Amino acid sequence: xxxxxxxxxxxxxxxxxxxxxxxxxxxxxxxxxxxxxxxxxxxxxxxxxxxxxxxxxxxxxxxxxxxxxxxxxxxxxxxxxxxxxxxxxxxxxxxxxxxxxxxxxxxxxxxxxxxxxxxxxxxxxxxxxxxxxxxxxxxxxxxxxxxxxxxxxxxxxxxxxxxxxxxxxxxxxxxxxxxxxxxxxxxxxxxxxxxxxxxxxxxxxxxxxxxxxxxxxxxxxxxxxxxxxxxxxxxxxxxxxxxxxxxxxxxxxxxxxxxxxxxxxxxxxxxxxxxxxxxxxxxxxxxxxxxxxxxxxxxxxxxxxxxxxxxxxxxxxxxxxxxxxxxxxxxxxxxxx
Length: 337
Prior knowledge:
By secondary structure, the chain is α/β, with parallel strands linked by helices. The chain has three domains: 13-121 and 296-310, NadA-like (Rossmann fold), CATH 3.40.50; 125-207, Rossmann fold, CATH 3.40.50.10800; 210-287, NadA-like (Rossmann fold), CATH 3.40.50.10800. It is 43% helix and 14% strand. It is globular, with a radius of gyration of 20 Å.
């Protein structure tokens, strides 16, 4: 395997000068004393991207030095994969978790797709298997299966259509049926069920980050902070959503803060997202209930650098599985976001 860019990872004057504009983006959220640690890797990664004709896709839950300083495309998992299709890059590095890299590969089958750490998994994705779906179809013959995009390609291949947290209701109602099987997030399914007459058959999958929040926690924050706006992700438990002022997908939460500019906000989701939005929105005070995703945090500048050097680990999907999973994603895209 060819290794490019024999980088000397030192904080030299040249590195300091080259990365100074990037530090300006994150100076409010990354202490100055940390920058000499990050800057040499950031400079090396950005050089390697040019040599490899690569783009880095970073999810909203990535740390600021990744999200703001090396990423080319940022957003939620589906938006990342979609926007990568329009690039002329030969290589995609997914700074996120494994199922996101698989989705990127589904929509970009001719590109090399890399995941810097293959162990970057997801409790929600791992809560359901293809065998589970086949058994559900036996128990509920003829009932369509909707699968959240936060699932493996093998699971997507067993379903009829995918959805995101942003378009889940739209997908459910697009099928024109009285009931659906909605997998795997129980809380997202419950949230959708409050907004439709379609019967929702749920699965008991949960995100280990969002399920840790509680309604009591949110109410206590309100007692401690005046004029606090609470916005929550629908993967949170129902008592949290009931205590929130706004419920929306990752992208909808970001747009809400950017557009509304509330003076003080609590984003009930993975806490790196607050850091990343705070870097852009200086007039908003963020109260951070800090639940970190241990899987997202497996992605680092160091392993992104190594992944670009070695072009590993690569995402490969069985062609039959990929064809069926891609169809489920394409059906969702036809419904719209």
